[in-house]
Structures are given as C-alpha cells and as structure tokens.
Design goal:
Elements lengths: L2 H24 L1 E2 L1 H11 L2 H16 L9 E7 L18 E10 L2 H69 L5 H36 L5 E2 L12 H6 L5 H22 L5 E9 L7 E8 L9 H67 L5 H33 L9
Parallel strand pairs: 1-4
Antiparallel strand pairs: 2-3, 3-5, 5-6
Length: about 425
C-alpha cells in the first residue's frame, strides 16, 4: 500500500469507529455513518485486506540474497585395497565442511523487488476498489430507505385526508345528500392509496434489508439526507482524473508487475555467480586443506531460452496496456453517462418539486373547494388526489435515481477526509 493510500484507508476506519459511537448515542444513522460502518464491517473486504497484508509481508524478502548452503562432503575415499573405506589412511582422503553462497545478478534482484512492490500496489488498488463499491452500494441503499420512508409518510397523510372524505360521504349518504356510488368511489380511492402505501412499505423493507446487508441489523432512524444538488467535485475534475479510478489503478499495478517479469526475464541473460569456501580435514599425518571456489553461469543459448520468455512477458505487458486503454475509455463513457443521469434526474426532480407537485396540490385544493361549494364533483377530487399520490411516488423514484448517480460520482476515487 502506498503511504497516501494507507493513510486514507486508516483514517477512514478510525473515523468510522468515532462516528459509530456518536450515532449510538444519537439513535440516528446518517448517510456518511452508514458508509463508514459498511467499510468497517463488510465481509467482502476481509479477503481484500488479507491479500494486502500477505503482499506486504512478502515484500521484505524480495530481492534479498538466497540463504547460504552448508557443504558436507567426503573426497577421495578409497574403495579397494588395504585402505578401503578408511577416512584417515590415504593422504588424498578428506572430510570436507564448508559454506556456499549464491549471488544472483543485481538486475534480477531489483526485478524481484519491483515485482513485490507491484503486488502490494495491486492489492491496495483492489482493496480501494472494493471499498468504493461497498460505499456506493451502501449509499444507494441508504437513500432508497430514506426515499421510501418519506413516501410512506406522505401517502399516510393522503390516506388520512381521503378517510375524512369517506366519513363525510358516509354521513352525507345517511342523510340522503349523496349517492351510494360517490360513497363507494371515496372508499375505492382510500383502498387504492392503501395499496400504494403497501407497495412503498415493501420497497422500504427491501431497501432496509439491502442496507443491513452492509452495516448489520440496526433499528436506528435515518438522519437528514445530504444534499444531492451539488457534485462532490467539479465536472472537469471528474473527467480529468479518470486515470486515478480504482479499476484503472489496478491495471496500472498489473502492468507494473508484468513489466517486472520482463525485467526479470532480461536479467536472466546476465550471469549469476556463487562462491564456496570449504575446510578439508585429512588424516593426522597429513596437512589439512582449505578450498575457495567461484562459479559463474553461462547464458549462452539466449535465443532458445531467455529470448522467448522475454517476448512472452513483453506481450503480456502489451495486452494489459490495451486493456487499460479500453478500461479508461469505458470509464470515461460511464462517467459521462452518470453525469448526464445526474443532470437529468436533478432537473426532473426540480421541475416536479417546484412546479408539477405544487400544481397537483393546488388542483386538489381547488377540486375540494369546488366540491364543497356544489360546483364540482367528487370524482374530480379523487382524481386529483390520486394524481398527487402518483407524483409523490415518481418523486421517490427520481430521488433514488439522483442518489445513485450522485453516489457513483462521489465514490469514483478515495479522497482525504471523505467517507
């Protein structure tokens, strides 16, 4: 893990603990607290963190000299004659003990260190990508719960108004001031609103289950929703920082690892060396011996050994570079699409909240006033109220679409101090 990315992930988890303690006392769950809790608890991240730990643990040994080897040997032991199998009678017989050390060439050791660092970078980028995916999923689920709860509250208000209409119709029917059909129509409108309420409650339960998938079971009420009307960063910053996208960084680290394989293959064309130092003990009547030996590899057949490996490694790098270019273009199109979706959802939501929904509310009030004055019909009142319910459901759907696009753009890449 790079130093900056490690700081970001560590700060994220620390803040998660602090905000969770605060939320426990407040008995509310804000959007950012839910995201932090998911990052801390999501089972899908456990394996990614373990992979990063493994890569970091293995980096310390990369590029180091191999362990020395112990030499134990017998030289020139006779196998026939009067001194057969004697270790001391023949002057040429030696009992040898020594040590041997292999010395891989520096380029090969440097390639091993480069490969280890690339493995760390790849594991870190994969962990970051997984964290961002969890953040997006949690954000989307939190807003889905929030929108559903708001819709439920609004529909309950409409049902209360409709039930008042039903009671009024029943009283009017008892005094023969209205028809049975109008009374039944009022009851039918209440049933339709209740059906929409049941649908909204089912959506809320489904969204709550998805949220609890990431943060665990919780009965805390949701806090105020953050504003979705502004992007976390400017459009230009979003489009100019695509190369920092987590999936692109994963490919960058894979390219670095593949390049280290190329360097290692090229380094194999350089000779490795080794040396051995040994002490040889002979019989008591003979002098002991010391020997020093150096060895050097002779990569003489590179055209059939090392060169094919180099070409294969270079082809792997080219393949990954092409994948990165394709990923970058796909991500650019995806980001542009999400920006367009955010724009469209925001504009439609603004139009609905500032014009369509107020007009529907005014139409309902006007229809009620006309009906009370005897100049309108009950059917008009019921139609306007059902239209208002439809607009409220549409508003909840638009909020979820806006939240999905906003969450995608917010969690494109990690930022310091940002959940």
């Amino acid at each position: 893990m790079t130093h900056g990315q490690g700081k970001w992930a560590y700060a994220w988890l620390l803040y998660a603990s602090a905000t969770w303690v605060g939320s426990a006392y407040a008995q509310t769950l804000s959007h950012d607290e839910a995201v932090h809790m998911a990052i801390e608890r999501a089972p899908t991240l456990v394996g990614q963190r373990s992979a990063l730990d493994a890569a970091q643990a293995g980096a310390d040994s990369a590029g180091r000299l191999p362990d020395p080897e112990l030499i134990l040997g017998l030289d020139n032991v006779p196998i026939d004659g009067p001194d057969a199998y004697s270790l001391t009678n023949d002057f040429m017989t030696m009992r040898r003990v020594g040590i041997m050390q292999a010395l891989p060439n520096p380029a090969k050791r440097a390639a091993e260190r480069q490969r280890a660092q690339a493995q760390i970078g790849r594991a870190d980028a994969a962990l970051t990508q997984a964290q961002l995916e969890v953040a997006r999923a949690t954000s989307s689920a939190w807003f889905a719960v929030s929108s559903s709860q708001e819709l439920i509250e609004q529909l309950q208000g409409l049902i209360e108004q409709a039930q008042l209409q039903v009671r009024a119709q029943q009283a009017a029917l008892a005094s023969a001031q209205t028809s049975t059909l109008e009374a039944l129509n009022a009851q039918s409108a209440v049933a339709q609103l209740k059906d929409r309420l049941l649908e909204a409650q089912q959506s809320e339960q489904t969204a709550r289950a998805e949220l609890e998938r990431w943060i665990g079971e919780t009965n805390a009420a949701l806090g105020a929703a953050p504003s979705l009307q502004e992007l976390p960063v400017t459009r230009d910053s979003l489009l100019s920082s695509l190369h920092r996208h987590a999936l692109v960084r994963v490919l960058d680290q894979q390219i670095a690892a593949a390049q280290s394989e190329v360097d290692a293959a090229k380094a194999s064309k350089r000779p490795d060396m080794s040396f051995a130092l040994a002490y040889a003990k002979r019989g008591s009547e003979f002098s002991d011996m010391v020997s020093l030996e150096f060895r050097m590899g002779l990569p003489l057949f590179g055209a059939h050994r090392q060169d094919p490996t180099i070409r294969a490694a270079q082809a792997g790098v080219s393949e990954l570079q092409a994948m990165r270019e394709s990923e970058l273009k796909m991500h650019a199109a995806e980001t542009a699409g999400q920006l367009a979706a955010w724009d469209a959802a925001r504009e439609r939501l603004t139009l609905l909240e500032q014009e369509r929904l107020p007009l529907a509310q005014e139409a309902t009030q006007a229809a009620q006033a006309a009906y009370r004055s005897g100049r309108g019909t009950l059917a008009a009142v019921l139609d306007t109220r059902m239209r208002q319910a439809e607009l409220l459901a549409e508003r909840a759907q638009l909020r979820e679409k806006l939240a999905q696009a906003w969450g995608f753009l917010r969690y494109l890449e990690p930022s310091e101090g940002s959940p």
